[in-house]
From TrEMBL:
The keyword Zinc-finger does not apply. This is Autotransporter domain-containing protein. Keywords: Signal. Pfam families: Autotransporter. The lineage of its organism: Bacteria, Pseudomonadati, Pseudomonadota, Alphaproteobacteria, Sphingomonadales. SMART domains: Autotransporter. InterPro entries: Autotransporte_beta, Autotransporte_beta_dom_sf. Residues 127-407 form the Autotransporter domain. SUPFAM superfamilies: Autotransporter. Gene3D superfamilies: Autotransporter beta-domain. Residues 1-30 form the signal peptide.
Amino acid sequence: MRQTLSVSTARLSVGIIASLGALCGPAALAQTYGPDATTPGEAAVAGALDKVASPATSPYATMLGAIDALPDPAARADALGQLSPRNYRLMPRLSIQSMDATDRDIRGYLQQRREMALDASANVPVSGDRTISVMGSYGLRQGKYKARVDRPAANSDSRSVRVGFDVMPVAGLIMGASIGIDGLDTALDRSQRPRSTMFNAGITPYASYTNGRFYVDATAGYTRSWYQLRRQVSYNGFNDQLQAGANGDNAAASVEAGGILQLGVLRAQPFAGLQYRYADLGGIVESGGAASLAVAKFKSETVRSSLGMRVSTALQKGSWTLRPSVEGQWQRELRSRPESRIEAVFVNGGTPIFTLPSWRYDRDTAVVGASLTAVHGERTAVRFSYSGEFANDRHVHGFAFTASRRF
């Protein structure tokens, strides 16, 4: 049965289960596991298991006996890694991936709206109720995260749907909001198990201003995430199929400012920006066997700067205007603090709390994009776009289709 705890309940569960271990007396193990650990996470699990009292009669007897029977230290280290909460490490980061995709889609749409306004004929209204626009988008994304110490490899696929509306209350100013849903399915360590699914629902207000020479775009948003994780702990003599659920609260804000330069038939937009993202994974309790964990709430937080350039042009084809665009930017993580640590304890008690240490993702990221917008009659527009995020430890590719109509 999937169980989702509030943050306070999860932390209380971790504390109570750990307290039970303190009442069980001194350890009396057949062997210690610390010497087999090869990573900080494995060492933390080993330290907890070394505190199990009366292992032959404990709830972990089969689990520990199977570790003892493994043929070499490498096999025992692998078992310790499977028993750790390492497969939860990426969950908040995947929520940030979803927020990044939403932000890029909306800023791409704002670029489209801005250029339509700049190139509009004199009879197109520049403010008031006749500038109300409605948009809808559908996105596909794939993310690949490389394995690191105490962090699994991951391949994620996502689908998103978003709708929004906006208006120009005064010339050059766009104000609007969008709502959307996003579903991610992620395979960890290139296998069907462990595997996570995530469903996001959020709202994103946005605004943009331009006077024809420069522009400022801003977005902000709140997203609620629902996680489900299936985790397999399997080594010779032991096999547990575990499952858990959790909720998360996420927040995002971005601001981007740049110039607008007309270079012959090309329009260039050099820009700089600042992005903030926060995502958490609420406390959870697994079910399914002796290896089940209670995991306290942890988070992922990022503050990034960006520098880039966007170049576009316009091609007239009868009643249609085609606007191809390309862009590139460099993002840099500004926070000096790493990701939060992960605290966990075995649900069946008899062990202390153990900790997966803090972690840092790669700080430098290159982001590229390309799009083609087709505008008909200065009212209807469709946009096909691609975005790519490239860092040493991850690659994310996204494709989106956006349609909008001015009323």
